Amino acid sequence: MKKFILLTVLVSFLYSCGSKDNGQLVGVKGKAWHPEKPYGMTLVPGGAFIMGKSDDDLANVQDAPTKTVTVRSFYMDETEITNSEYRQYVNWVRDSIVRMRLAISADELGEKNDPKSSKKGGSIADYAFVDADTTNMSVYDKYMYDNYYSVGTGDDPYAGRKLNKKVALKWNTSQYPDAYYTEVMDSMYIPAEEAYNGLRTIDVDKLKFRYSWMDIQAAAKAKVGKRKEFIRKEEVKIYPDTTVWIKDFAYSYNEPMHNDYFWHQAYGDYPVVGVSWKQAKAFCAWRTLYHNAERKRRHQDFVSTYRLPTEAEWEYAARGGLESGTYPWGGPYAKNDRGCYLANFKPVRGDYAADQALYTVEAQSYEPNDYNLYNMAGNVSEWTDSSYDPTAYEFVSTMNPNVSDNSNMRKVIRGGSWKDVSYFLQVGTRDFEYADSARSYIGFRTIQDYMGTNVTGNAGK
């Protein structure tokens, strides 16, 4: 035992002699962190503000008494998520599902990917899992393949298998390489008997995004429990419900919006609608995955997750640094000094076009607020992460207040929309919709936490 202690002391002495810290406590030196503003986002500096309705509660809702609270800094999308941006997500999921089906088919046929082959996309074998050949794998990759990827999980035998994304998918039927490829592609489309006018489209019910997340709130409150007990798995149909343009308005002709609004490029810069709260949450998970996958490829640190704003964060951002304003531009009027409307809403009973817009407008329309955020009032209402409770302001914390209740399906929406009167455009007005509902007047925008605390909106006060 004495020899062991002596050897330990000797090793420790030799290690300290060769170290660069001279035996002092200097901390672990890592890479310098340089905050990177995500594309299309703006930094909202954290600070304190008066949350709630500062003016008279004319509607007598009594659910937003004024309360001084503080929120941390965060990045926020300058505009609502557009159809074009959401289509990027849909196409990614679609392509991933097709590649997975092609890889599974090749696996069942015993086909393996030949990385030396010069003919790419010449057969279904070129779309096989790239990890099928273990001869050239690193020690780590082979270990993971042997113990995890090759056996999968109980609900997904192909979990973790790597898809071959280097070979382009062929969507033109005249370019299909073989019968097996044709069979897989055929399975992605609606049945031939359901097509009309010779138009056969992707079966959108098959476009599902599967992701997992950790319920930190439940884990923190639990006295006992293993980590795996708080991991939640979600599988969400991602395609927007385009029928909302019909279902939301009885005895109304809105078929052109149903037919064209989401997929036609004419509406590419308009806010996506027909997306439920659950679908918006799935989009945030995908955006985080998509961004961090690229950073991993470049050997960079991961970024913070994208998410929906809390109700307090949304209101703070909408105010743009203006205290007690009725609207994002201050207010109290919805017109400027030249008589022009400052947002897209329904200003006159039955007259949706008085503000020069019948339905939605491009996401980057009207003047932004002082945080450079567009359409924080009007255009489309926006999902927040918060659950709606009419008495929430009475009991929420004054620091980063939020009501996160997974059992409460009523989720707060803010900002008002193209079909709402001006009351709902006010920054202090609260409203809600059910998490599994999709509407023609509800969209969303995402935020990302700022890494650090040195940016505050009222630091100079």
TrEMBL record:
User: Entry's InterPro entries?
Assistant: CTDL_fold, Glid_motil-assoc_lipo_GldK, Sulfatase_Mod_Factor_Kinase, SUMF_dom, SUMF_sf
NCBIfam families assigned to the protein according to its UniProt record, in alphabetical order: GldK
Keyword Cytoplasm: yes or no? no
Keywords annotated in UniProt: Lipoprotein
One Pfam entry name: FGE-sulfatase
Which protein are we looking at?
A: Gliding motility lipoprotein GldK
> Which PROSITE patterns does the entry link to?
PROKAR_LIPOPROTEIN
What positions does the domain Sulfatase-modifying factor enzyme-like occupy?
A: 40-94, 241-447
Lineage runs: Bacteria, Pseudomonadati, Bacteroidota, Flavobacteriia, Flavobacteriales
Record-linked SUPFAM superfamilies: C-type lectin-like (SSF56436)
Top-level taxon of the source organism = Bacteria
Q: Does the keyword tRNA-binding apply?
A: no
Instruction: Supply one GO molecular-function term.
Output: formylglycine-generating oxidase activity
